Amino acid sequence: MSNATAGSPASGTTPASGPATTGTTPASGPATTGTTGRTLCVPGNEACAEGALYAGVGFFAGYPITPSSEIAEIMSRRLPERGNRFIQMEDEISSLCAIVGASLTGSKVMTATSGPGFSLMQEALGYGIMAEIPLVIVDVMRGGPSTGMPTQGSQGDVNQVRWGTHGDHSIIALTASTNQTLFETTVRAFNLAETYRTPVVVLYDEMLGHLRERLSIPEPGELPLVERLRTGVPEGVDYHPYLIRDDGRLPMSDFGGVHRYNVTGLYHDMWGFPSTDPHTVDDLAHHIYDKIELRADELAQAQEFYMEDAEIVFISYGSPARTAHQVVHQARMNGQRLGLLELQTIWPFPARMVRDACRKARATIVVEMNMGQMYYHIRNAVENPRSVFLSNRVDGRFITPKDLRRVLRIVEGQGE
Questions:
Q1: What is the CATH number of domain 4-216?
Q2: 71-79 contacts, C-beta under 8 A, 24 or more apart
Q3: Which of 24, 47, 74, 164 is close enough to 179 for a disulfide, judged by CB 3.0 to 4.6 Å?
Q4: How far apart are CA 362 and CA 27, in angstroms?
Q5: Using an 8 Å Cβ cutoff, are 344 and 185 in contact?
Q6: pLDDT tens digits for range 336-389
Q7: CATH no. for 302-411
């Protein structure tokens, strides 16, 4: 069995992930949480919370919503124990606004919600993108639209994550299918938020959020951590908050500290003040888009199973990937040449990775719990769109091996 990770080095962190130049804060291990180095049996939401604590989250603001509420409950207990801050806000709008402010003061920050709450966060999410503020947002997906099915799983927020807030922008969104990878994905989300000064969304479904399974928490320092890149400009010297370094990164100064500067959701110059100058607007629009989209291959991360000689490739992500893996594994035992590409980076869409994975396959089956939100992007990425098929459910029930085998028989021309 092949279990290879594709993408950038150090589990998806970029080569610039350990800033060590003048004016940076050295990378450090997590504060002692009482769980590092231990093996636990916990639900996915707790694995996500543990990952955030390992990454060094210092501020959490949120509003309870099923099926993500356990994350807030854990943070309300664990953060004060570490001398950090938790606050329950009056709604999801204020929750995201609160972590925007806390991040500007120098903290690693996080909020957690589900589909309806994520809808309310869209304006503040756009603000975080435009002002280039490191944020981690967890969306534990449930059935929708509207109130939908609060206690049932779905993957209906995939396109909302990418296109929910208005204007030209890009976004980083990561996902996982097991509690162990969810822990590591949450750590990676904080690393990428700090590296690229941008909001990062951790996206998974209710089924993983409430699935209890083994989690081994690494020792401090075992996983690489990216700390806030702070400016080396001394007090009394002009600080340009949006003056990009040669490596594309933007050092920050803690708001309320030694430097005075402006932060706005308007197009702005290197001082942070609003500008409608065409050249300034064009440069900033391309910067906030290109700093992510032009690194799509570098950010792409996936797990590959039996892909070396696969004639039929399953592509999945999140909980449904567990079912796809089971079907592929059993098929291999029967001599069928099936493979699985499990996406762990959803956005920016890993088009090159998908295209390469499907190039030699005679058919591709996309497995997801929505009406085909990732399916259409995969069709656009491959060389033969007509060879791509969809196996999905939208009824709140888990995709079963029987569901996949039925589609597989159709693809192979054997009928249902």
A1: 3.40.50.970
A2: 71/45, 71/46, 71/112, 71/138, 71/140, 72/112, 74/45, 74/46, 74/49, 75/49, 75/110, 78/33, 78/49, 78/53
A3: 47
A4: 46
A5: yes
A6: 999 999 999 999 999 999 999 999 999 999 999 999 999 999 999 999 999 999
A7: 3.40.50.920
